[in-house]
Write a structure and sequence with these properties.
The protein has 288 residues and is α/β, with parallel strands linked by helices. The protein has helices spanning 14-26, 56-67, 84-90, 132-145, 162-169, 182-194, 210-213, 227-232, 234-240, 257-265, and strands at 6-12, 34-41, 46-52, 73-78, 95-97, 100-103, 116-119, 152-156, 174-179, 200-203, 218-224, 241-253, 270-277, 280-286.
């Protein structure tokens, strides 16, 4: 392989695709690779992984990883020399998740009057609302809002900021988002401005940053990241929540839910609901 940008596509049965994706999350060499997993052909039972390595080394490591799952058929395609991400996003349809309607600038004339309309531009950040994990978090939050409001909300791994902005637009008076990626923080701040919220986004690795800890304890914490970081942060998330507070966790495959849930149960959390969308799981947990 060369250092030209590539997309690696793997197709196969659901169980094999999920196992391969789960193993990717557990491999330190691959945990930084952006990928998605979707059902491509329901009638034939074909699931598809789309992965976007950022270097030749990552591409080779990923190709070798997928080759270990013999039932997956893997192809490598070169990406065109163009702003393919912007082109792809411009064609994304708006998304409805409960009361929330997420749209890009190209759909600004299609917003329904009976929804919380959120204009989210992704750029290089994760979280347009199309991914099963983001939708899962919004649906979980929509359910919770039927029983009350959450004055202080923290969004860990905020990406585009859509979750923290959704909280700000539905009555939360303090909304803070963190991300380890500076570009994502910049994009999230731009989205907060577009949506006319005072949501504060912080470039931080973990929850010890003073701008994050100053708002604690929070009534609700979103963490839409990956399974292993969710486990590593279980004690920190507990510490950031007030007693009785709620954590909405996603970024994990259904097959990883038990692993993550065990870590939070060991911290005293109890599960209130589990949501599934495509291959992804969302957990609603409460700190007692």
């Amino acid at each position: 392989m060369t250092d030209e940008p590539v997309q690696i596509i793997a197709r196969g049965p659901r169980a094999i695709a999920e196992a391969a994706a789960s193993a990717m999350d557990s491999d330190p060499r691959l945990e930084g690779i952006t990928y998605s997993i979707i059902e491509e052909d329901e009638d034939k039972g074909v699931w598809r992984i789309d992965a976007f390595p950022t270097s030749e080394t990552e591409a080779n490591d990923l190709a070798g990883h997928l080759a270990g799952f013999g039932e997956l058929k893997t192809v490598v395609e070169k990406l065109a020399d163009a702003d393919w991400l912007e082109m792809a996003l411009s064609g994304l349809p708006p998304v409805r998740a409960g009361r929330f309607f997420i749209f890009g600038v190209h759909d600004r004339g299609r917003t329904p009057p009976n929804a919380v309309n959120l204009r989210i531009e992704a750029g290089a950040a994760f979280g347009t609302g199309h991914h099963g994990t983001t939708v899962g978090c919004l649906l979980a939050y929509d359910r919770l809002l039927k029983a009350g409001r959450y004055p202080k909300v923290l969004d860990v791994g905020a990406g585009t900021g859509v979750l923290a902005i959704a909280a700000a637009r539905t009555g939360s008076r303090l909304t803070v988002g963190t991300d380890i990626d500076r570009v994502s923080v910049r994009i999230a701040r731009e989205n907060a401005k577009v949506n006319r919220t005072a949501t504060r986004f912080v470039h931080a690795n973990g929850l010890a940053n003073r701008a994050v800890s100053a708002g604690a304890p929070y009534d609700l914490v979103f963490a839409n990241i990956l399974a292993r970081p969710l486990v590593w942060l279980s004690q920190d998330i507990k510490g950031a929540l007030k007693p009785g507070g709620v954590a909405i966790l996603s970024g994990l495959l259904r097959s990883q839910a038990r692993f993550v849930l065990a870590a939070y149960r060991s911290r005293g959390f109890r599960i209130e609901r589990r949501l599934g969308r495509d291959a992804w799981a969302t957990l609603i947990l409460r700190r007692p």
